């Protein structure tokens, strides 16, 4: 390039005048430069000794130094590592020379500037700029940081570069806050452009927050949807917007659900609202199965041990029976049984040996012991971590958790050997295997938009699969809808930390709230939200309600349990049953107009606390004005009713909150436990309260009241107490 510049300068005219001549007078006093000439490729200097130096614009550095002298000024210029000192500059001419230097340098960089501007334009034309695109933009523009810093001081800029340089400078110097403002403006414009779609997609127009959630396009997006805030509508709206705005085709969208019922419901809604769109909707297990099938070309065989709890129970029962014939295992299992009986704490020490003998013979409480060991073995298989292994290895051999670990490792080895010998896999192994195939590039994801429903229920293993799919494409978008207030499946492997620390797992995240509920009124909302947010580890949300109520809508009703053996069976307790019938009678009396029913949902912490099928049939016949259903609180997730009656609100092992002792081995395996007491039970109670559209009735054992009820009664909550 220096040669080209020299040839240009030489061939243009041997008599061509230089662009600038330095003072002869200054040269007499030591100034070295005689002339300066500009060419498209760079600058040419000659010295008073007739030496010529060529410096290309490509390496010109914009930050120069200007020294003012008594008679003449001096400029110090830099071309990468080379410094050029220009002294003997007339004071009246120095500003013009600086302007000319910058002008010519920018002219020499015009192609580079316009290429950068084209890259910027291509990004902006996409509309919403994701964080990864913004970081890439920052990287492209970083070498120009010095130019953009001094740009406002440059008086003379080539006309073709004024607008491009201004835009490039804005984005190079922008902060995340600027990016957020820009993206919000893009979203506002898109909401206007697609107003008709969002107005007509569902029976009611989508709210502003729902529309924001449909449009947001960061690399990772977390929508925190409060109970009854229309998360399904947002999932549908997201798909409809992506298709109508031509940001996606149906075959590039994947929707993931946890349960078959949820996946089927989503398919049905999509068919109703977007009948021509063939969007993939799968459970995590179905997705894993498809990935394995594509890689291995054959559909893997699912073990009966995975699909049948009874088969699994029988397998482990037979395995233990066989292992007990080995003296070493027999001694280990005997020691485990002693520790187990001691942990239960229900028998005096002198009866421990007798109970252990019964257990080893498969009698007494053996079925309960076996069920627990099966659960612990599966939990260990699916959720063990390096942290858990370190904690277990630090325990003394005689510790109950350490003994459990020894037994579980042996049982798991036989379980996995059985799968291998039969060339079978189980459901959790499916997800792990699928993740490995994605990780090693054996499966190439066709999906650029991954949507996950009920995200608060995700486990570490499933989160890993999602992350691997997300990172297969640079321009993929992850969209997750969930509510940490409704995270109630920790016992099944769900890890709330994946939601509360979402960006740690999936990178820079846009978090949007869906904070208007269409289900319950403001009175229920105030109590439920205030109650769950006592735990400050929960993500803070302010839920507003579509419907309002003039008085408290959560009522505490006490029943007094009589002191007799009959009352030990809680679901048949006379006082509790009579109180329930009283409440149902009151609700039935409030039904106005013939032919209309009010829905009533009977909830309990445990299944045995609910009315049996026969009793429900009698109640439904007795109160035809009511549509009565009964289920555990865990099962009620996603359900709603006009009225909710929560049964057996009492303290204790089978109370609400449940204070059933957890196996110490399970405690070590579970995700980091919240430091807040009864954290998950509190969220479960929130789920119970928010199933109701109009009214909640809490039936509480007055002799042994639930601490949750006592907290509501004594705290600053709008609840009433029935007389």
List keywords for this structure.
six-stranded parallel beta sheet, elongated, alpha/beta
What does this protein look like?
The structure is a single chain. This protein is α/β, with parallel strands linked by helices. Helices cover 46% and strands 18% of the residues. The protein contains 30 helices and 23 strands. β2 (33-39) and β3 form a beta hairpin. α4 (110-124) packs across α7 (162-172) and α10 (208-215) packs across α11 (231-244).
SSE order and pairing:
Layout (H helix, E strand, L loop, with lengths): L1 H11 L7 E2 L2 H5 L4 E7 L2 E6 L4 E5 L3 E9 L3 E8 L2 E9 L3 H15 L1 H15 L6 H11 L3 H6 L11 H11 L3 H18 L1 H6 L7 H8 L4 E6 L5 H14 L8 E5 L2 H14 L6 E4 H13 L4 E2 L1 H4 L1 H15 L3 H18 L7 H9 L5 H18 L2 H8 L6 H22 L2 E2 L1 H13 L9 E4 L7 H11 L6 E6 L14 H4 L1 H5 L2 E6 L1 E6 H11 L11 E4 L6 E6 L14 H16 L8 E7 L8 H10 L3 E7 L8 E9 L14 H6 L9 H11 L2 E10 L5 H8 L5 E2 L2
Parallel strand pairs: 8-14, 8-15, 9-10, 9-13, 11-12, 13-14, 16-17, 18-22, 18-23, 19-20, 19-21, 21-22
Antiparallel strand pairs: 1-2, 2-3, 3-4, 5-6, 6-7
Helix pairs in contact: 4-7, 10-11, 13-21, 16-17, 16-20, 18-20, 21-22, 25-29
């Amino acid at each position: 390039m220096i040669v080209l510049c020299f040839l240009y300068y030489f061939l243009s005219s041997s008599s061509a005048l230089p662009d600038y001549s330095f003072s002869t007078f200054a040269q007499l006093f030591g100034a070295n430069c005689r002339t300066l000439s500009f060419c498209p490729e760079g600058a040419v200097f000659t010295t008073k000794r007739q030496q010529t130096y060529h410096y290309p614009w490509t390496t010109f550095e914009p930050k120069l130094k200007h020294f003012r002298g008594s008679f003449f000024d001096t400029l110090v210029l830099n071309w990468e590592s080379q410094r050029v000192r220009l002294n003997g500059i007339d004071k009246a001419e120095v500003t013009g020379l600086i302007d000319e230097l910058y002008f010519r340098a920018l002219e020499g960089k015009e192609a580079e500037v316009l290429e950068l501007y084209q890259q910027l334009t291509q990004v902006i034309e996409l509309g919403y700029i994701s964080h990864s695109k913004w970081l890439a933009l920052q990287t492209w523009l970083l070498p120009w940081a010095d130019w953009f810093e001094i740009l406002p001081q440059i008086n003379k800029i080539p006309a073709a570069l004024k607008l491009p340089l201004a835009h490039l400078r804005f984005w190079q110097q922008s902060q995340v806050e600027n990016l957020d403002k820009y993206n919000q403006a893009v979203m506002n414009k898109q909401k206007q452009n697609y107003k008709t779609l969002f107005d007509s997609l569902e029976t009611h127009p989508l709210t502003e927050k729902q529309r924001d959630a449909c449009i947001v396009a960061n690399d990772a997006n977390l929508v925190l949807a409060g109970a009854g805030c229309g998360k399904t509508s947002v999932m549908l709206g997201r798909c409809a917007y992506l298709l109508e705005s031509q940001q996606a085709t149906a075959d590039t969208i994947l929707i993931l659900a946890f349960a078959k019922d949820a996946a089927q419901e989503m398919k049905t809604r999509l068919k109703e609202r977007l009948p021509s769109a063939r969007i993939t909707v799968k459970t995590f297990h179905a997705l894993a199965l498809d990935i394995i099938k594509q890689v291995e070309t054959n559909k893997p065989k699912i073990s009966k041990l995975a699909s049948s709890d009874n088969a699994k129970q029988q397998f482990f029962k037979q395995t233990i029976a066989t292992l007990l014939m080995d003296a070493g295992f027999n001694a280990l299992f005997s020691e485990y049984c002693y520790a187990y009986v001691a942990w239960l704490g229900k028998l005096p020490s002198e009866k421990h040996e007798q109970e252990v003998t019964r257990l080893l013979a498969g009698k007494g409480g053996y079925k309960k012991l076996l069920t627990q060991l099966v659960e612990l073995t599966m939990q260990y298989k699916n959720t063990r971590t390096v942290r858990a292994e370190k904690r277990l290895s630090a325990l003394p051999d005689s510790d109950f958790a350490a003994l459990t670990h020894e037994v579980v490792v042996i049982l798991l080895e036989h379980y996995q050997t059985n799968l291998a010998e039969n060339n079978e896999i189980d459901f959790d192994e499916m997800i792990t295997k699928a993740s490995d195939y994605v990780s090693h590039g054996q499966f190439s994801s066709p999906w650029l938009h991954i949507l996950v429903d009920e995200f608060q229920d995700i486990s570490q293993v499933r989160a890993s699969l999602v992350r691997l799919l997300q990172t297969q494409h640079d321009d993929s978008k992850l969209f997750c809808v969930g509510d940490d207030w409704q995270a109630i499946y920790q016992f099944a492997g769900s890890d709330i930390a994946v939601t509360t620390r979402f960006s740690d797992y999936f990178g820079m995240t846009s978090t949007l709230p869906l904070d208007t509920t269409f289900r319950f009124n403001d009175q229920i909302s105030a109590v439920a939200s205030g109650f769950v947010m006592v735990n400050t580890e929960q993500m803070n949300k302010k839920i507003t309600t579509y419907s309002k109520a003039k008085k408290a809508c959560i009522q505490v009703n006490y029943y007094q349990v009589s002191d007799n053996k009959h009352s030990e069976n809680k679901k048949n307790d006379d006082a509790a049953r009579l109180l329930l019938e009283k409440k149902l009678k009151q609700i039935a009396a409030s039904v106005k107009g013939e032919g209309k029913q009010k829905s009533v949902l009977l909830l309990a912490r445990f299944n045995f606390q609910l009315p049996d099928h026969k009793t429900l049939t009698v109640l439904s016949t007795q109160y035809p004005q009511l549509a009565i259903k009964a289920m555990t609180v865990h099962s009620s997730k996603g359900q709603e009713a006009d009225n909710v009656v929560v049964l057996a609100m009492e303290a204790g092992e089978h109370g609400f909150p449940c204070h059933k002792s957890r196996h110490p081995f399970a405690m070590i395996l579970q995700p980091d436990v919240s430091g807040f007491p009864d954290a998950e039970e509190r969220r479960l109670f929130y789920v119970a309260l928010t199933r109701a559209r109009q009214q909640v009735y809490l039936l509480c054992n007055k002799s042994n009241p639930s601490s949750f009820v006592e907290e509501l009664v004594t705290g600053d909550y709008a609840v009433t107490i029935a007389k």
